[in-house]
Structure formats: structure tokens, C-alpha cells
From TrEMBL:
Keywords: Oxidoreductase. InterPro entries: Epimerase_deHydtase, NAD(P)-bd_dom_sf, NAD(P)_dehydrat-like. It comes from Paractinoplanes lichenicola. This is NAD-dependent epimerase/dehydratase family protein. The keyword Oxidoreductase applies. The keyword Nucleus does not apply. Residues 5-235 form the NAD-dependent epimerase/dehydratase domain. Belongs to the NAD(P)-dependent epimerase/dehydratase family. Dihydroflavonol-4-reductase subfamily. Gene3D superfamilies: NAD(P)-binding Rossmann-like Domain.
Length: 332
């Protein structure tokens, strides 16, 4: 296959699986990294043969993006900061929005055919918590600390669609909106969603807030990105990627049931909602949890299922495979 794909944020959890999926399909893949010193580590964790190269580019700088997109047929833009780790307490909206614009503008200059942007179901939250939501739903939230992530993802995706409408000569745009992403970890650089399972297994969640998420498996999410990239009918579409909903306590019960002694530290104790709400004004983590307490998300992936024939595997399987990978990597 002569077609080439640029994958941004090449060291990330989703990007690793997207790169693996694309290489398996015979594409030439170029991945962006903020530092090329990580190239060998990323190549190792992808773990499949194929034409894989790397280029340095940062969401907060114009440098490198024209070189990154040169000669590319497609771009899959997975890179976006989350309010954890090095970005905890920092502005994540600016790099999310500016980075998306840089990628799209460079893609246009390079004559890229289609860009797939990894958004989030955080950008498709209904006004009434728990109400049915699909691709027609857009998040509308106040500018408050607790809503930093959903605002960043929503504004970045809206920017992408606005730019594409201004460019009738292309590129095409498709967005993928994953829910809580689970699946086998590839290395110690964990996503926050996989980090939840690690906290449970290590006994660092002695009580569980009454929260939950729809689950999507990262392996199936990579397949959806690949299909969204090439399917003619996918151009100009949003696709929610969300499977079964699980409460934190249900996730913990799955771990206890399927891992036996390895899950001995997993707690099933429920944290009362009032405790979270009382602590929210004084604790950033509790403040971010508060709006989701007791909310059962009602997201539909029917659009992806009907248009692309896509489905994700059972949530219990994803959770179990995530846990096994953490144990095998010695991360618990």
C-alpha cells in the first residue's frame, strides 16, 4: 500500500494502538513526538513490523508540522492534553485548540485527503445529565475548573468543524468521540482511564464514588479510527465510541471476580455522595468528580454501528484485559 498516515501524539495510549492497527493494514505511518528521544521506546511498545517513522512536533509550536504532514494521505490527530500528570492544574484548553488548528492548517497545506480528530464523549454531554445523547449532542458548560477537560475537548472539536466549513477544497474531516478507554497497557505511560484500574488493584481506592462510565476498548477504538479514515460515508461525520456502562463498583466487582487473589486489595466500599460534595470546594479531584455523581450516561454508538459496522467488545473483557496487562508489566 502506497498511502501514508500521520498519527499525532505517537507516545500516547490511543496513538500506540492506532499506529499498530494502521501498520497491520499496510500503511506507511509517521508519528509525531515532542522529543525524538522517545522514538525507540515508542517503536518497541507498538511491537509490530512495518514502515514507521517519527518527526518532532509540539501542539504549542508551529515548528515541525509542515514537515510532519508533507506527503501524507491521511492524518489521525490523537494528541491532546489531559488535566493530570504534567498538565495537572494547567491550562489545557489552549494546547488542545491551538494544536488542532495547527494540525488542520498543516494538513490543508500538504493536500491531505482526510483528517480524523480524536475528540471525546465529553464533547457530547447532554444538558440534562443522563439524558440520551448521540452525535447531534454538543456539550455546553460554564468556564469553571471542574469542567476544564470537557470544555477543552468541545472547543477544540468545534474549532475543527468551523475550519473545515471554511475550506471547501478540503481536507475532509471525521471526528471520533471515545468514552472511557480501557484495554491492555503497552508500557508504564498509562492513560488516566487505565490508571483507574491500577488504583483499584493497588488498594489506593479504599472507597469508590458513585460514578461510572461507558467503556470502549482501545483495540476496537483503533479499528474505528482506521475505518473512519477511509470509509467514503464517514467524511463529515462524528462517531461516538461507547459500549456498556459500568459503575466503579461494578468494575471493582469484575476485578474481584475474575482476578481472584490478584485483586485482593480491590475495595467494594461505596463513598457517600455528600462526602464528595462537601470536599469539592477544597479538593480539585473531588471538584471534578462532583458533577458526575450518580449520573448514568446514556450514549449511543448506533451511528458507527450502522454506518461502519463497528462494535466494541464486552466491557468486562476490556476491564479484565487491562488488569492482566498491568499485572504482567509489574505496574501494580
Amino acid at each position: 500500500m502506497s498511502e501514508s498516515v500521520l498519527v499525532t501524539g505517537g507516545s500516547g495510549f490511543v496513538a500506540g494502538y492506532v499506529v499498530r492497527e494502521l501498520l497491520g493494514r499496510g500503511y506507511r505511518v509517521r508519528a509525531t513526538l515532542r522529543s525524538l528521544r522517545r522514538a525507540d521506546a515508542v517503536r518497541g511498545k507498538v511491537g509490530v513490523d512495518g514502515d514507521l517513522s517519527f518527526v518532532a512536533a509540539d501542539l504549542l509550536s508551529d515548528d515541525g508540522w509542515d514537515a510532519a504532514t508533507e506527503g501524507m494521505t491521511y492524518v489521525v490527530h490523537t494528541a491532546s492534553p489531559m488535566p493530570v500528570g504534567e498538565h495537572r492544574g494547567q491550562d489545557i484548553t489552549t494546547p488542545a485548540r491551538h494544536g488542532t488548528r495547527r494540525v488542520l492548517q498543516a494538513a490543508r497545506r500538504a493536500g491531505v485527503r482526510r483528517v480524523v480528530v480524536t475528540s471525546s464523549t465529553a464533547a457530547a454531554m447532554p444538558a440534562v445529565p443522563g439524558a440520551p445523547a448521540d452525535e447531534r449532542t454538543w456539550t455546553d458548560l460554564p468556564d469553571q475548573r471542574r469542567y476544564a477537560y470537557p470544555r477543552a475537548k468541545t472547543l477544540a472539536e468545534r474549532d475543527a468543524w468551523r475550519l473545515i466549513r471554511e475550506w471547501p477544497d478540503g481536507p475532509e474531516l471525521t471526528t471520533v468521540l471515545p468514552a472511557n478507554i480501557q484495554g491492555p497497557a503497552l508500557d508504564e505511560d498509562l492513560s488516566p482511564s487505565v490508571g483507574l484500574i491500577r488504583l483499584m488493584l493497588s488498594g489506593k481506592m479504599p472507597v469508590l464514588p458513585r460514578m461510572g462510565y461507558p467503556i470502549v476498548d482501545v483495540r476496537d477504538l483503533a479499528v474505528l479510527h482506521a475505518e473512519a479514515m477511509t470509509a467514503p460515508a464517514a467524511a463529515g461525520q462524528r462517531f461516538i465510541a461507547a459500549g456498556e456502562f459500568l459503575w466503579f463498583r461494578e468494575i471493582a466487582a469484575i476485578l474481584r471476580d475474575r482476578l481472584g487473589p490478584a485483586a485482593a486489595k480491590v475495595s467494594l466500599r461505596q463513598l457517600p455522595n455528600w462526602v464528595v460534595r462537601a470536599a469539592a470546594p477544597f479538593n480539585a479531584e473531588m471538584d471534578q468528580l462532583a458533577p458526575s455523581l450518580g449520573v448514568r450516561s446514556n450514549l449511543s454508538s448506533a451511528h458507527a454501528e450502522k454506518l461502519l459496522g463497528w462494535r466494541t467488545r464486552p466491557a468486562a473483557e476490556s476491564v479484565t484485559d487491562t488488569a492482566h496487562s498491568l499485572l504482567e508489566l509489574g505496574l501494580v
